[in-house]
Amino acid sequence: MASVGAMVILALIAPLVLISPASGAQAQRAPDRPATDPFGVADARPKPPGVAPSGNGPFGAARASESTGTASITVVLDAQPDDGQDVAFTGCGPLGCGPFILDDDADPARSAQVSGTGLDAGTYTVTQSALPGWSLAGIVCDAGEVIDLDARRATITLGQGEHATCTFTNTSAAIRVVLDARPDSAQDVAFTGCGPLGCGAFLLDDDTDGTLPSRAGSAGLAPGTYTITAAAVPTWLLTSLSCDTGEVIDLVARRATVTLTAGEQTTCTFGHEAIPALSVTTVVEGQSIPWDVNWTPGGDLLWTERAGSLNVLPVGGVARELTLIGDADFYAANEIGMMGLAVDPSFDQSRRIYTCQGSTVGGQRRIKVVAWTLDAALTSATRVIDPLVGNIPLGAFHGGCRLEFAPDGHLLVTTGDAVDPATPQSLSSLGGKVLRVDATTGAGAPENVFAADGDPGTDARIYTLGHRNVQGLAIRPGLGQIWIAEHGPNVDDEVNLLQNGGNYGWRPGPGYDQNVPMTDLSIPGAIPARWSSGDPTLATSGATFITGSAWGAYRGFLAVATLKASSLRMMGFDATGHFGLMLTPSELDGTFGRLRTPALGPDGALYVTTSNGTNDRILRVAPA
After folding, report:
1. What pLDDT does residue 85 have?
2. Which DSSP category does 525 fall into?
3. Which of 302, 226, 308 minimizes the C-alpha distance to 264?
4. Which of 71, 228, 245, 399 could form a disulfide bond with 2, CB atoms 3.0-4.6 angstroms apart?
5. What residues make up the domain containing 541?
6. Residue 612: inside a domain, yes or no?
């Protein structure tokens, strides 16, 4: 059980008060406090007592100026959490009784402790009134006490000149709500808190103007289930939501549901980020299906066109096509051609890049991965390893062919099923797979599950299987997770988080049935998608993760290009891979036609290729 603890201060704004008893009965309250709080219950604070008719102090003793005794008692209220709840006490001694109220919060109107001085030797009692929603967890005095927790009473016997301090520790269930807006903003955010007795509304504002606080809370809550819901705010997005204990989080609904036991305390933090407007400019135009883009360490932009060209836009230069040396077997038709592109992590030393492309040799058509070196002037590319990975099935459609380096330095290669129902589930075929290979030799990574299984019938290069047509491949920064976007059949485009040796369930046979689910969960161990489109599909293509503080609410989202939907989709997943929500920036929603590849450039901007077939572009997208 998590506890906010005694150091937490619940800063209450004007509409907020404390929680009433479970019965919901409304007690008398100070006139400056409203009747209900965020969770729809009444204010149970005691009415401040009047001045004792005798004018005596808390223990019925004379005023200090008239007293002759030398003993004293100090009573301290320790509320956990600190709260605006007033607590009534009665102190009694040989000369009578007197009431007093303590309040353990930052409000200077009432103190958290009181002292009775000038007391004669004798026996004194301090009794705390019952406090709805709170439990008296302990009473500790430092001299001569007899404690009765059930009666909420301490009995102290004092000698002449003796002093005692008694601390009454009260605990309650409590919820604190914190608004964390990035950047800090004057934007007010409306919240609704609901509990067993009703609902209440409040506003928070995470800025420095002092008009509204950035946090609010309620203590004295009865055990039960409570919800806190943030209202939608234009141009802002709830990107994170967490509570200390017992929560069920729904980012899409902007809601936390918290179940509290007696005395349990939790803090729920709602993280909002601004959704930036986007600026879109054209970097290169007049292209024909620019399939993939990448950069040299020096910032030179490279891209492939499916018809067969490899191109460069040098820093400060003019776009041009590279001369390809040793590319006589290149093959392009339908969806197949010059596709994926990767730059070696050691490019400065090796000058090496990699392409995934169609090939025809002796009438046999295949897809392969080729290693090239670029000349110093960036005018030509020469094949140096051909093939690095070969014998990938080629059909009229579903070629896969996205390339990306994994954090451990191995090269990842996605393949399509070549419209062959047998390939996705076959461990002897490279079709319908994600491969993980050594970028120097093309051999399977030794950590691949199928490299270590000892079965000569399985291909050691296979990392995952059961795919249809993997078009997107992205490494999640900071976590190293490998994510893919798959182009689906008649239903269910998918986004998947890969596991070594995982089977992602594509099995269209017998025949080639485009109406079966993308993931056949009847396959033992089949891994469900992290996101699926359902019907209609979007025709998901390339993907990349967004990084950089300038992107605001989009930071950390997976940007997925779509062909049929002609839009860029921003998908939010938590650190464990659970899907949260999807946004479609209006600037890239049907504006430029079919979109194929998003890639984050070295300047922090997102570069997006169009795929309309004529006059295609490479777009630069950045926060405005």
Report:
1. 77
2. T
3. 226
4. 245
5. 278-623
6. yes
